[in-house]
Batch of 4 targets.
Target 1
Amino acid sequence: FGGSSLADDEQFRKVRSILELEPTRQYLVPSAPGKRFPSDEKVTDLLYICHDLAAAGRPVEDQFIKIRERYLSIAQQLHLRVDIETALDEVAAGIAGGQNRDWCASRGEYLCGLLIADYLGWRFVDAVEGVRFRDDGTLDDEKTQELLSGLLKDRKPSVVPGFYGAKENGEVVTFSRGGSDITGALVISL
C-alpha cells in the first residue's frame, strides 16, 4: 500500500477493509504516510529534511514534530497498543546522532509498519532482516529470497515495510523513491 493509502487513520481503516475482502492475503508492504491533502507533506520528505538539517548542524525539532504528530495521531485514533512514542524517540535520536540519509528516510516505512502490524494484529518483520543489499548498494536478489523465505516460511500474516533493506553489516540502504513496490514484488514472489 502506497503513502496516500496510509496517510491517516481513516486510510488505515480502508486498508483493513480491503484486506478483509480477501482473507487469504498474508503479507502487507507499507510505504510511509503520504499527503492527506494537497498542501500536506509526505513523511519521507520530512525525514529527508530532518536528515539534511542534522547534517548541517541545525536543529530538527520543528520538522520532526510534524512526523511525531502524524504517527501519534494515527496510533491514538486507532487505539493502538504499540509503543510508537519510544520508536519515535529512537528515530529522533538516530537523526540527531548522525545516521545516514537512507536510514533516516527508511524510518517512515518502519514506523508505519509498526502501526499497521499492530492495527491488523499481524507480525512485524523488519526489512533489514530480509532485504539484503551488496556492499556496492545493489540488491542481492539471491540472498534476499533466501532471507525472506526463511522469515516468512510459516506463512503467518506479516507486515514487511517497503523501500529499504540492509547490507550484511547492518547499514540501511533504500531503493529509489517508489521502492516499496520493489519490496512488494520480492515478498509476493516467495
Target 2
Amino acid sequence: LHLQAGKTGFWNVEVTGLDTVKALKGAKLTIGADDIKTAATFKADYLQETAGVKRLEAAKRTVSFSGDLAKDFAGLEPASYKKTDDAAVRTVLAWDEQYLYAAWDVKDSTPWVNGATDPAQMYIGGDTVDLQLGTDEKAAKDRAAAVAGDLRLSIGNCQGKPVAVLFRAVSATRKPKTFSSGVVKSYTMDFVDAVADAKAEVKTQPGKGYLVEAAIPWTALGVTPAAGLVLRGDFGATHGDLAGQRTRLRTFWSNQHTGIVDDAVFELQMEPKNWGELTLQ
C-alpha cells in the first residue's frame, strides 16, 4: 500500500506490516438508559456554553392583535430558535406601562393541540408557549434553582380555550400544587394559578403551525416596568405527540437543558442560570 500525504510538502509513504494484522479479541459494549441520559447532559452543557448569554430588547409600544405578526410587531426583529426545522419558533416582545406583550410563531404539523384537562398540566400535555422571568434584580445570576421572584408563565389550549398559568416555585402568596414523577415523588410549587387578566389570541394554520399573541399584566408578574430595566428570562415552546396527549419536544431560546421529556417534575422546574437577558427599551 502506497499513499501520498502532506500539506506544504508531499511525502510518498509505503505502509508495511499489513500481512501481520490480527483482529483483537473484543467484548460487548452495553449502552444503557443512564448512559444515554449522561450523554444528553454532556450535549446540553456544550450547547449552553456555546450559546453564552443571549440578549433581547423589548420595544416600548402598545400592541393590538390581528393575527399578523409582521403587522402587529412591525419593525421588530423576532428571536429565532429551533431544535428541528419543522418545529422552529420565533418570539418577539414589546411593552407599555400596563402589559408585557409577547408573540410566538411556531411551526407545528399538528398545531395547538393539548390533551390536558387541568391547566396546570398543559406543559406536559402537548403544545404550549412559555415565558420565564426573574423579577428580583438582586438574585444571583448563576442560581441553579428558582428563588423568590422567579416565575414561569405557560400558555396552552385547555379544552378549546387559551389559558395562561403562572407558576412560582417560591412565593409569599401561596396557592400550592404538588407534582410528581418517576424520579421525584413530590415537588411543590408555592403558587400555581391561571392569570385571569391575561389576554391571549391564537391563529392556527392546519398542517403548518400557529401564532400566539399575548398581553400579560405587569401586576400579575409583580414587575414595575421602566425603560432600561433588565430582567433575566427565557421563552420557548413545547410540541406534543401526534395524538396531542404528551409533550415530546421542548425548545427554548436560551436554556439548552431541555432534552428531558416524560418527567413531569424536570419539565416543570426552572433553570435561571441558563436564562438570557431581556431589556425594556
Target 3
Amino acid sequence: CADAKPLTFATGVAIEAGTVGPHTSTPSGCVCGNQLCGNDLFYAFTTTGDRKLTVSATGDGSWRPSVAVRPACDATPVTACALAASPAAPAVTTTDILPAGDWLVQVGSPSGAGGPFDLQVMLEDPAYAPVPNDLCANAIPLAAATLYSGDTRGAADDVSGTCGATDT
C-alpha cells in the first residue's frame, strides 16, 4: 500500500494493466465482507474537489477480481468495493460523490494469488442527489423546535443575491 502506483488520468480516465500474483502483497485483513482477502496491488490518485468515481477491474477469465477504494492504507471501512460476479465479469463500483483528497484503489482476489487484470478508473462531475425544495413553490414548511438539514450541492443557482450582493 505504501508504494501504490500513481494513476495518470487522460480526459478523466486512467487505465492500467497488472497482475495480482504470488509476488504481490497480502492484505493485513479481509475487507469488503471478505471479498478481498487474497493478494493485491495498490494504485493512488488525488482529487481536488467532489468527483463521481467509477472503478472497474476485469480479469483474464481465470479468477474473480475484487476492488476497494479507501483514503489511506488499511483504512476501514472502505469507501467503496466490489467483487466480480464471475471470472468472466468485471468488478465494478461507483461512488456518486467522492470528496476531495488522496485515494487508493486496491485490486485483489477474494483468496489466493489472482491473475492478470485491466483496471479502469474514471473521474467525472459529481452526481448530486436532486434537491426537492430547489424552487420557492416546493419550499418545505418549517415547524418550531425542529432541526432541518439539507445539501445545496444539487440545487440550481437561480435566485439573485441578497444584502446588496451582485452574484447569484
Target 4
Amino acid sequence: MATVDLLAAGPALIGVSVVLAAAGFGASALAFGEIAAAVAKCAGYLALTRPRFRPEGPTASWGRLRPLLGYGAGFSIAQLGNWFALNADKLVVANALGTGPLGVYGRAYNLLSEPANIIGGAADKALFPAMARVRDDGPRLRAAYVRSASLVALVTAPAAVLLCVLAPEVVRVLLGAQWDAVVPLVQLFALVLLPRTSYKISTSLTRATGAVYRAAWRQWLYAGYVVVLTVTGGLLWGLAGVAAGASLAIVVHFLVMLQFSARVSPGLMGAVLRMYVKHVPALVLTVAATWGVAVLVRPLGIDLVTLAA
C-alpha cells in the first residue's frame, strides 16, 4: 500500500501536475494531477487485491449488499460532516475576508493538515483492521488505543514543536519570502497538531466497532463548532481570530471523540490523558532545545542551516 501511495503521490500527482503546468495548462494542471493520482491508487489497489468477479443472482447480491449499505451510509454521512468541518473555516474566510486572506490561510492550514493526514492516515490503515478483529474485547481495544495514541504523540509532538519554533524558516523554504504573513498562523496551528492527528485514532475505533451513525452526528457537531468559533474569532480578530477559532474547534472535537471512544472500556480516557501528562517534561525539554539551537544558529541568516541544526 505504501508503494502504491508513493507512486500515486510522485509520478502521478507531482509528475502529471508539473508536466501539464510546463505545457501551459495553468491551475487546471493541479486538478489533472489529483485525477491521475486517484487513477493510480485505484489501479494499484486492484492489482494488490486481485478481486474475483463472480456473477450472482439478485437475492444473493442483495444479501451481501444490504449490510454494506447500512454501514456505508453512516460512514458517508460522517465523512460528509468531516468534510464540512475541515472546510467551513475556509468558507468563512473567503466570504468574510476575501480571496487574498484565503490564500494566506489556506497555505498555513495545509502545513498543519498534511503532517496530520500523513501520520493519521498511516495509523488508520494499521489500526482499523486490527481494532476490528478485537472489536468486542474492551481491554485489548483500550490497550491498542493508548499505545497508538502514545506512538502518534511520539512523532507528532516534536513535529509540532519544530513547526512552531521554526515556522519562519519553514515558510521561507517551502513557500518563499513573499508568504511571511503565513508564519503566525502556522505557529498557531502547530499548537493543535497533536489533537488534530490524534482524533483520527478515535475515528478508526468508531469505524472498527460499527458506531458510524453515532460518530456521524459528532462530525456534524464538529462542523458546527468550526462555523461558530471561526465566525466569532474572525469578527473579533480577523484572520488570526479565524485560525484561533478553528484551533479551538479541533481541541473540542478531540476531547468529544476521546470521550466517545471511552465507551468501549472503562478508564480509557483517563489512561490517555495520563499518558499525555507523563510526557510533558520531555515536551518542555524539546521546546527548550529547539528554541535554544534556533537562537544560536539564526544569526547566520541561512534558513536551511537553521532547519538542519
